[in-house]
Amino acid sequence: MTLSEEELAEELTEGPLRAPSRARVVAGRFFRSGQGRIGFAVLALMFLLAFAGPLFSPWTYTDKDFTAFMQPPSPSHWFGTLQTGADVYAVTLRGMQKSLVVGLLAALVSTALAAVVGAFAGYFLGWTDRALSWVTDLLLVLPAFLILAIMSPLFGAGQWPLFVIMLALFLWMVTSKIVRGMAISMKEREFVQAARYMGVPPVRIIFRHVIPNLSSLLIVDATLNVSTAILTETSLSYFGFGIQPPDVSFGTLIADGSKTAVYAPWTFWFVAGLLVITVLAVNLMGDALRDAFDPSSKRSR
User: Fold this and answer.
1) Whether the predicted model's global pTM rises above the 0.85 cut
2) Nearest partner of 245 among 91, 69, 89, judged by Cα
3) Residue 13 belongs to some domain of the structure
4) Topology in the membrane (predicted)?
């Protein structure tokens, strides 16, 4: 990996020449990227708004104002109210919390699953590879939306962690195939062969040498999977197959707001706008991370 003149100058001013860490180089490239800085700042703001914003409102997402039904934004209700008298601001931030948590957890679980399955298949090959590849190919052809729709009765109130697991089970297959191919070449590297000759157990080699050396791919994949998981959750919840009432998410709020969007736009456009901004910020971060990890990318220089 090559360093820019600025990075090399920083290293020399510290004293004796020392090898810069990969994390420092990647972080430097990421924050030199305009879209990386914008995406990070906007996403941080979305998380801050979702989890700290409710503290500044006198209303919670379960409160009802029976004197203000379908009222437009006002000093009392910053985003207006719904047909039930619920405060749109409080309900929207609650939905944002749930969608962000579901998207983040589903992305982490799916990326971890892709890393483990792909690395084991590529390292061991043989019957292990055949069995894991068969499971991967089977899940690729299964209709994920239909299966999640059939299992939606299980995602009742308080059962959203089960929904996260089921959602993650249909997001990891393509990445797993990429990891498998990289693991096949990684097992022939000198440091992996040296560990094998020293008697290090194969499982330990996979978790200490193979997977860590695929971190750039996995980090980018996890970042991009966040937006995929959020949009998938939104789509499923919109049709009633995701997060179930009385809980709320982006999908359930958009489904309710779309019915009144024409004559009460505040019930729809606030949540729709926040969804677009959040997904756009995640995608900007994912593109910037991909460029930062790729030394050949012109945009990372």
Assistant:
1) no
2) 91
3) no
4) Multi-pass membrane protein
pLDDT tens-place string over residues 231-276: 988 888 888 888 877 788 898 899 888 888 889 999 999 999 999 9
CA distances from 84 to 67, 75, 96, 187, 273 (A): 10, 19, 20, 60, 22
Residue 14 forms part of a structural domain:
no
Dist. CA 79–CA 63, nearest whole Å: 14
Contact of 236 with 160, CB cutoff 8 Å: no
| Segment 185-218, tens digit of pLDDT | 888 888 888 888 888 899 999 999 899 888 888 9
The boundaries of the domain holding residue 122 are 23-300
Domain count, the chain: 1
CA atoms within 13 Å, Cβ hemisphere of 11: 15
| Number of residues that make up the chain | 301
Side chain identity at 237, as an amino acid letter?
S
Cα distance between residue 292 and residue 219, in whole Å: 11
Residue 8: inside a domain, yes or no? no
Q: What is the CATH number of the domain that holds 96?
A: 1.10.3720.10
Residue 124 lies in a domain: yes
